[in-house]
Design brief:
By secondary structure, the protein is mainly α. It is 64% helix and 2% strand. The chain is built from 15 helices and two strands.
Length: 385
């Protein structure tokens, strides 16, 4: 089992190892951990993040369309499609898991009407849960007393999918692989997305959804079967849902709250920082070239895709969000978390769980589940988004 990094200083030393490289802002974005003394080059805001995420979707669709309709070389086609799908899926996940997420918390703009309108438009475009139902279950339930209970619809989803306490870790890994590749999982997930947009919604939302589905139908007719699958279905349904599951399962430890454990303690004990990176070699001498090669491969093929697909935006510091869910400057997550981490460390009260590498976070969660006693589970009400 990959245990968390022990304490603030050890975690900070991993981040400080990147100081051997230029462009520290890039490494802060990639890892999700800030240097204590670094000052960002500019102040971000919600509008910038909304535009960036939408631009990633546009770039992704353009590249996948280029791959399908313009390129002739097979290798170039595949490379272009892979990069396009990465950007399209990443942008969609950022919009849903970060932009809409902070919108239902009321943190995007001061006007809650603007927040709601933006979230309704974006959730319609990506066929995910509408504003009101998402706000109810996430803000008032997941962040409330239902957290880490059977009434927590995120925990219920994990258990209903078969990731239950007491199973062998190897069985949980097998379950994960089979679920990610399961047509039934993807069909049920997408059916839930459609249902949330069509059933029990206000008339205006129903009309928005029907108009958008009709538009997608026309676009699909023009694209043809191959174009529809490669440009729309794979990035925005299959890959999106795989990334969503990987985020959900590594987001928390997913153990049922113990008797006598407070809600706040449960948030602290079950929330993880999922930093994307690993310590740099100490220098550029010839004897370190092998380590640099491994480091580069891990960052290119593991940490960067994880950051783009699984822990976009502030999700990398989701543990901080669960402690300070009312802070409006969500886009300053790395700086604000680091400031609080420093304070706790100085007071010798550091209780964040720092894990470097989403693959290590996955191992930590599945190990924690496997080490617990089995629990009796009946049919649970859950949701996937």
């Amino acid at each position: 089992m990959r245990r968390p990094v022990k304490g603030y200083h050890q975690s900070t030393e991993i981040r400080r190892s990147y100081e051997i490289l230029p462009f520290q802002g890039v490494w802060t974005w990639l890892t999700g951990k800030e240097l204590p003394e670094r000052k960002p080059l500019w102040q971000s805001n919600s509008t910038e993040r909304v535009l960036w995420s939408l631009s990633w979707v546009v770039v992704g669709v353009a590249l996948t369309a280029l791959s399908v309709f313009s390129l002739q070389n097979t290798a170039l086609q595949l490379l272009c499609w892979l990069i396009g799908a990465l950007f399209a899926t990443s942008g969609a996940r950022y919009i849903v898991a970060t932009i809409i997420h902070h919108g239902v918390h009321g943190h995007l703009y001061k006007s809650q009407t603007v927040n709601k309108v933006l979230c309704e438009i974006l959730s319609t475009l990506f066929i995910v849960q509408p504003y009101e139902s998402y706000r109810q279950f996430h803000v008032y339930e997941h962040h409330g007393r239902e957290f880490s209970t059977f009434d927590d619809k995120d925990l219920a989803a994990i258990y209903q999918l078969g990731f239950t306490p007491g199973k062998k870790k190897s069985a949980l890994y097998t379950r994960l692989i089979l679920t990610l590749l399961s047509p039934k999982f993807h069909l049920v997930f997408f059916y839930g997305r459609l249902k949330s947009n069509l059933i029990g919604v206000p008339l205006y939302r129903l009309m928005m959804t029907l108009a958008w589905l009709a538009t997608l139908g026309c676009v699909s007719y023009l694209l043809g079967v191959a174009g529809t699958v490669l440009i729309l279905v794979l990035p925005f349904v299959v890959l999106y849902q795989m990334a969503s599951l990987m985020h959900l399962i590594t987001e928390h430890v997913w153990l049922v709250r113990k008797e006598g454990e407070s809600v706040r303690d449960s948030h602290i004990n079950n929330c993880l920082a999922r930093f994307c990176g690993s310590a740099c070699p100490p220098d550029f001498s010839v004897k370190q070239w092998g380590r640099w090669g491994k480091w580069a491969a891990m960052h290119l093929f593991v940490h960067l895709p994880s950051r783009m697909l699984i822990v976009q935006g502030s999700l990398v510091c989701h543990d901080w969000h669960h402690r300070f869910g009312s802070v409006r400057q969500w886009y300053d997550y790395a700086q604000l978390r680091e400031r609080h981490a420093q304070k706790l460390s100085a007071e010798e009260k550091y209780d964040y769980i720092d894990i470097w590498g989403v693959h290590n976070a996955l191992d930590y969660v599945l190990s924690s589940l496997s080490e617990e006693q089995e629990v009796e589970i009946e049919h649970l009400a859950y949701r996937l988004n």
